[in-house]
Amino acid sequence: MKIYVLIPAYNESGRIGRLVSQIQKLDSVSKIIVIDDGSNDSTREEAERAGAVVLKHEKNKGKGAALRTGFSYIKKQDCDAVITLDGDGQHKYNEIPNFIEEYKKGNTDVVVGSRMMKCRNMPFIRYITNRFTSFITSLLCRYSVSDSQSGFRLISTEVLKRIELSTSNFEIESEIIIKAARKGFKIKEIPVSTVYLADSTKRSKINPFVDALRFFRFVFKNLS
Questions:
Q1: Neighbours of 195 (CB within 10 A)
Q2: Neighbouring C-beta atoms of residue 87, cutoff 10 Å
Q3: Beta-carbon count within 10 A of 90 CB
Q4: Contact, 54 vs 32, CB < 8 A?
Q5: Distance CA 96, CA 5 (A)
Q6: I want to staple 62 with a disulfide (CB 3.0 to 4.6 A). Which of 103, 122, 154, 168 is the partner?
């Protein structure tokens, strides 16, 4: 079984190289792809030195656009599934095998890492926003999801080939779940840890208000 890892990254120098090097040690991962989403630092160089395949956007386009670039690449490869995680160190790379083990059991096409099952230190605004978006996502896909905004997940290549993604920012997390569920694919959640770094609030690329508006716009387009 071939499993790829896909990491969208924007100005993650000082972190991305170490993350790629750590993942390289996992025997269960066949290839690591980093999407440098218009960084103006050494993100690309550090990722390449650590052994990742790097695809670069000349300008910053957003997390969703970065993931879609990576998915387009992966659909042309000979792999069974891809694991996505963020490049800022907030996901524990050593939990990657848990996704693969769940996928190997069969009867699941998307494995979402739920921070709600394990995390006890999520910032309040993120907690409230996540609970709300997860509730709406669950209604739209008719499947109970506790952490629709988690970027730590496994997606089978077959899912990527069967759904058409259009969003360019953080709402892509919900879009994947909704469209996969509506195509009849099976979704499972497993607990994951999240490391909130000392400067995570300052470094966060999430704008609660702007991204909430984007989410609502996406929801209105998918009510039918």
A1: 12
A2: 25
A3: 19
A4: no
A5: 9
A6: 168
Q: Are the CB atoms for 64 and 170 separated by under 8 Å?
A: yes
**CA pair distance 77, 80, nearest whole angstrom:** 9
Cβ-in-10-Å burial (0-12, 13-18, 19+) of 103 comes to: buried
Phi, psi of 77 (to 5 degrees): -100, 165
- What are 151's two structure tokens? 């970027």
- Along the 224 residues of the chain, how does pLDDT read in single tens digits? 999 999 999 999 999 999 999 999 999 999 999 999 999 999 999 999 999 999 999 999 999 999 999 999 999 999 999 999 999 888 999 999 999 999 999 999 999 999 886 655 666 677 777 788 888 888 888 888 999 889 999 999 999 999 999 888 888 999 999 999 999 999 999 999 877 665 544 455 555 555 566 666 766 676 55
CA atoms within 13 A on the CB side of 35: 25
Cα(102)–Cα(58) distance, integer angstroms: 36
Tally of CA atoms within 13 A in the half-sphere of 48 that contains its CB: 8
**DSSP state letter for 115:** G
Q: Answer whether 71's CB lies under 8 Å from 82's CB.
A: yes
Domain boundaries of the chain, sorted by first residue:
3-221
pTM above 0.85, yes or no: yes
CATH 1.10.10.410 corresponds to the domain 3-221: no
